[in-house]
Amino acid sequence: MSLSTDRMVSLFGLDPATYQPSDLHVAEDRIYLETNCYTDVVIELLHARGDEPLAAMGSTVRVDFEGDQFTFFKPDPADLERLFGIDIHEMQPWRSIPTQIAELVRAGRTMTVELDAWLLPDTASTSYRTEHVKTTVIAEAIDLERARLQYFHNGSLYAVDGADYRGLFRLDDPDPAMLPPYTELVRFDAGPRLTGNELRGASLDALRHHLAHAPADDPFARFGPRLTADLPDLLERDSAAYHAYAFATVRMAGAGFELLRAHVDWLLGPAGAAASAALGRIVDGSKILGFRLARQRAFDPDPILSELSAAWTDAMTALHRAID
Fold it and tell me: Any idea what the Cα angle at residue 76 is, between residues 74 and 77, rounded to 5°?
């Protein structure tokens, strides 16, 4: 799977300048073009490999209100293994991360790495050189001699080199007191790579499994009292606090259920139309609630939350009817 030049070693031989991202990250009808850093990089890894990312999104039916935030959803590792033969599990970064990446890519593998978005040029409109935020990337190619990394991040494929590359991996100022980043090994030899009807059948089985473990009650009904309690404090704080709150709550919910809607459309087609429509109401309601929060003015969230609750109940009911 790996491709090499004299210096660059690459999984797929891609060029960030010509790379075409998954439709999930560019389609004009999508509201949340990016979901969260982990799910987005897995989507792009699958897309770049030639797999259908939507097949692995059934686990988003389990998105729940966790007490102070909605679930930070990720593709289920068991689904990735069963559907695509991809195994992702934690690894021990006991040596130089660039060296580790190069060795893995040469072997037709790769790794996820948690990095500081402060030094990732693709975050120029948000975090680059302005805010220290941990984020996950997946290595696609690396050139150790030229100090260049090509990586999946958020909704596309990017490159970093020079001082940013050296800073990301602390090559010029290694500090033994700094904890190593969280990393995972990504293998592509964990089983068969399903396609066609086999892929759809296995994806449907996975959705049934995840639906059986979906929240037992309406998460938006539980979110309502917490939002009401949090609003006075949010109104007194700055925009950074709002963005952090919105990302962890309404944006996470909206992005997760929008992925679920796309999964249902791909997997069930017309049989999932009622569920898809209800999920669309969740997405729209989450967007509206996010806009209301962004104004940082007092408002009554109950009408929006009531519609979100009704939409969630309708979606779960329709999904059970469609696949049971």
Answer: 115
Read off the tokens for 100.
Answer: 């580790």
SS (H, E, C) 218-267: CHHHHHHHHHHHHHHHHHHCCHHHHHHHHHHHHHHHHHHHHHHHHHHHHH
Could you report the per-residue pLDDT of 240-296, keeping only the tens digit for each?
Answer: 888 899 999 999 999 999 999 999 999 999 999 999 999 999 999 999 999 999 888
From CA 299, how far away is CA 224, in angstroms rounded?
Answer: 13
Q: Decide: helix, strand or coil at residue 172.
A: coil
- 154 phi-psi bin (left φ>0, alpha ψ -120 to 50, beta other): left
Q: Render pLDDT for 10-30 as a digit per residue (tens, 0 to 9).
A: 999 999 999 999 999 999 999
Least confident span in 229-243, 259-273, 309-323: 229-243
Q: Which of 67, 2, 98 is nearest to 225 (CA)?
A: 67
Q: Where are the alpha helices (DSSP H) in 116-195?
A: 162-168
